UniProtKB/TrEMBL annotation:
Coiled coil: none annotated. This is Mitochondrial processing protease beta. One of its GO terms (cellular component) is mitochondrion. Residues 51-178 form the Peptidase M16 N-terminal domain. It comes from Drosophila silvestris. Keywords: Hydrolase, Metal-binding, Metalloprotease, Protease, Zinc. GO terms for biological process: protein processing involved in protein targeting to mitochondrion. Pfam families: Peptidase_M16.
Amino acid sequence: MALRVLGVTQNLRTYMRGVEIIKRYKSALTVKKTLLNIPATQVTQLDNGLRVASEDSGASTATVGLWIDAGSRSENDRNNGVAHFLEHMAFKGTDKRSQTDLELEVENMGAHLNAYTSREQTVFYAKCLSKDVPKAVEILADIIQNSQLGESEIARERSVILREMQEVESNLQEVVFD
């Protein structure tokens, strides 16, 4: 009985949070004005075929990234896991920057560099001050084009990825949705 009451209480809290969000908007007009103030996304294509999506929110921070249509869905028995592996290896250094130099440069900008792999894509991105977008783009380009794949880093990341795979395999929800 106590568990059932606890479950109802949790559901009620979730519902009430939703009601509070709706109350913030006093009318449909307010919702419409809010939606109209979302910056438009402009998509352009470079001569090399690369598509660039951009929004100018006027904010002092920005997120820039590279979304690559290469996730686990594109893999087969021979190259299974390669997108995830390359995502892990990307931040181990480049021809121009060691791993430490890369970390310090990003940290000194006050930026955040990250990546993830899904079934559909592999993503590399940086969150930074708007004024630092050109530098963040240069760093991302260096990582994508010039990553070093050292033997010791490969061995270390291999064990990290194998451990992550074990965690995913033990999570029923991850297995079902994969």
